[in-house]
Amino acid sequence: MATNRSFGKNFDLSISKGVTLVDFNAPWCKPCRAQEPIISALKKIYRGAAKVAMLNIDENREIAFKLGIQSIPTIIIYKDGMEMNRFIGLQNNETLAKALQRLVG
């Protein structure tokens, strides 16, 4: 499961500007692995319009705890650092794309 280690280290800064979708996951989670190709597709579709990142909760426990992540996958969409949407469990491409589209215009 591809994750961006620097994103976790600079989490607050990474979500502070623009639209950012963060998929909180873990490599041992089967629904998270099923979510991965959908997140990868969104990353390609929204390149330049929104940031799309995956964050391993095992490697970023403090962030997951601070945000109250209790189930994975959890997907949070931020706009300028503010949480705009939270999805818990496996989500389809259409649901996530609609939520992103509303925020990127």
Overview of this protein structure:
The chain is an alpha+beta fold and 105 residues long. Helices cover 42% and strands 25% of the residues. It contains 5 helices and 4 strands. The chain has a 4-stranded mixed β-sheet. The radius of gyration is 12 Å and the shape is globular. The mean pLDDT is 93.
Can you describe this structure in just a few lines?
With 105 residues, this protein is α+β, with helices and mostly antiparallel strands. It contains five helices and four strands; from the N terminus they run H-H-E-H-E-H-E-E-H.
List its salient traits.
4 strands, alpha+beta, 105 residues, 5 helices
What is this structure's SSE topology?
Blueprint: H1 5-9, H2 11-15, E1 19-25, H3 30-45, E2 51-56, H4 61-66, E3 74-79, E4 82-88, H5 93-104
Parallel strand pairs: 1-2
Antiparallel strand pairs: 1-3, 3-4
Q: What's the β-strand tally? A: 4
How much is the radius of gyration in Å? 12 Å
Mean pLDDT: 93
* Overall SS class: alpha+beta
Low-confidence stretches: none
Number of helices: 5
Shape summary: globular
Helix content: 40-55%
Give the terminus-to-terminus CA distance: 30 Å
| Biggest β-sheet strands, sense, barrel | 4 strands, mixed
Strand content: 15-25%
Order of helices and strands: HHEHEHEEH
Q: Reading side by side through the largest sheet, how are the strands ordered?
A: 2-1-3-4
